Amino acid sequence: MLELGVCYYPEQWPREKWDEDARRMVELGLAWVRIGEFAWSHIEPQSGVFHWEWLDEAIEVLGCAGLKVILGTPTAAPPKWLVDRYPDILPVDAKGTVRKFGARRHYCFSSRRYRIEAARITEAMARRYGENPFVHAWQTDNEYGDHDTIHSYSDEAKLAFRAWLAARYGTIDEMNRAWGTQFWSMHYNSFDEVDLPNNLVEEPTPTHLVDYFRFSSDQVRSFNRAQVDLIRRHSPGRPVTHNFMSQNTDFDHYKVGEDIDIASWDVYPMGGLINGRLSSEEKARYLRVGDPDQTAFNHDLYRAVGRGRVWVMEQQPGPVNWAAHNQSPADGMVRLWTWLAYAHGVDMVSYFRWRQAPFAQEQFHAGLLLPNSEVDQGYLEVAQVAEEIARLPAGEVRQKASVAILLDYESRFATRALPQGRGYAASAIALDWYAAVARLGVDVDFIGQHSDLSGYKLVLAPDLVIPDADFIARLKASGAKALFGPRSGSKTRDMHIPADLPPGPLAALLDFRVTRVESLPEFHSEPALYGNASHAVTGWRELIRTSETVLATFEGEHRTGSPAVIGNDKARYVGTLPRGEFLSMLVGDTLGWAGVASLPDLGDLRLARRGRLHFAFNYASIPATVPAATSAAFLVGSRALGPVDVAIWTED
């Protein structure tokens, strides 16, 4: 059953508030409380001088009240004395500027000294609280990737990158081959000559850049794994999580996920809308409810990262402080987001934060309580969710979907290194594909190239730039059909054009070759004929030579009649960026071709299923009718669903 929690910072409040806060949390229906992730300077105000007493007491107060503590390692905010003693722990941005102390995440993943210090404080905490009966779970660090902190260009990173390259390639000649250094006289005589790919006169070779992204991703994983190993040594049996971020592909989340027990992530739909993919008109329409698909996309992704186990560590309870604009969510959205999380497989939702801070950087970030401890709107909605939880049967789990979307992090590194057009945004394209499926009432799983394909009827691969031959072989042997987006198969792992032209290994599924690509500006569009309808496309166009069935063609003045979509009984390929009605029709037809049942376009209604439970979420400003069976027994809400409302039901 769904459990609720909250993020709390006892070091930020007078001791006399702790007991009352803990009591009120339990009265609200909360079961979990996360603490400690920014408390290093309070635990160790001077080198080797530990003040554990306040944290001992805070854990005791919260635990005795009936709350399960998630204890965070405090490595996201190293203290000033540590920075002053070891300034080389600070990260360096792409311009070569050292990023200073005074906020958070001010460390370089490659700093050998910081890795020692991070392990030291982690082990000290794990030794002290590893067997504490009130500590039920651990969180490593906080939000890897926040504030653009995965990629550091420090001297420490340069040395680590050189060692990484030596391990990857073995010889400098092999690296020269992979990087194509005969181009522009870029030859290296040893790994010690290699610099980081920043502040160059022109762009680096894309293999240099993608290798740097791979290296940076591996640095995150090894940094995180060091903490996990220490926690497990001293706190066996307690799950370890990390709180990931929305739409971040700076590192391979699957690989980090292999080392933790539960994936969690931080849900901020209001900022996600403002910073996201939608047009200005759509942002205005969804201003107080958020992008109807971005949050669900990330729930499904992190369910895959956590191998089925996923939490929300920070759920937005009101306006935030960090986006370009910070609007308030509509009344009812905190409740809707909570049930949306549960519908998509989340087992615990924790709200950020208990009380709004009256000081420092996040003064405008709402909590469940106002700064004076009065209840805010989010508190009222959490109370409603706590009451509704009791109406639902326990033990319902999210089932495997029929449709999987492939998200491959190395392919994301590739399009970042070689976008071939400023308007190309792989994350937005994947979200568009996800939304097209969701609007038809179909549940989705996420997979990587490592994933088991059994049980899937359809695999959607919007941007599989670097396909693995083993994955393609397993896909070919599986019962799933597949739809590939443009650029799929366009690069080898060395970031070269395949020897026999794109799509490289995809040729085992589809007989075609891509002989030319264009990245088109947004002010230009070209018609594509699909299903007896003409659709304007822009952004990307490929020239395809194929013996497969042509399902759509480019029309207009330039090479009219050339293929835009091709396919056979097993796979289909799109040589452009379908959007809007074109994408909706393509996805709808593809679902039918794969034998996946779907509904007519749901508009602003979204559906999900978890075990026997069916869910509906209305993002519209007008009422909607839930497409439930006549046998539906509603547990929450009803068939007539108001704006910003939720319905939950079972069917015979």
Describe the structure.
This protein has 652 residues and is an alpha/beta fold. The protein is 31% helix and 19% strand. It has 18 helices and 25 strands. It has a 9-stranded mixed sheet. A hairpin with an 8-residue loop joins strand 17 (549-554) and strand 18 (563-567). Helix 13 (333-343) crosses helix 14 and helix 16 packs across helix 18. The chain is globular and about 75 Å long. The two termini are 21 Å apart.
Structural descriptors:
652 residues, alpha/beta, 8-stranded parallel beta barrel, 18 helices
Set down the secondary structure blueprint:
Elements: E1 3-7, H1 15-28, E2 32-35, H2 40-43, H3 53-64, E3 68-72, H4 80-85, H5 112-129, E4 135-139, H6 155-169, H7 172-179, H8 206-234, E5 240-244, H9 253-257, E6 262-267, H10 269-274, H11 280-285, H12 294-305, E7 310-315, H13 333-343, E8 346-351, H14 377-389, E9 403-406, H15 409-417, H16 426-438, E10 444-447, E11 458-461, H17 469-477, E12 481-484, E13 512-518, E14 526-530, E15 533-537, E16 541-546, E17 549-554, E18 563-567, E19 571-574, H18 580-593, E20 605-610, E21 613-618, E22 624-625, E23 633-636, E24 640-641, E25 645-650
Parallel strand pairs: 1-2, 1-8, 2-3, 3-4, 4-5, 5-6, 6-7, 7-8, 9-10, 9-11, 11-12, 12-19
Antiparallel strand pairs: 13-16, 14-15, 14-17, 17-18, 18-19, 20-21, 21-25, 22-24, 23-25
Helix pairs in contact: 5-8, 8-15, 13-14, 16-18
Rg value: 25 Å
Instruction: Provide the residue-averaged pLDDT.
Output: 97
End-to-end distance:
21 Å
Globular, elongated, flat, extended or rod-shaped: what is the shape?
globular
Number of helices: 18
Main β-sheet description: 9 strands, mixed
Structure classification: alpha/beta
Number of strands: 25
Strand order of the largest sheet: 10-9-11-12-19-18-17-14-15
Percent of residues in beta strands: 15-25%
Secondary structure: helix percent: 25-40%
Q: Detail the poorly predicted runs.
A: none
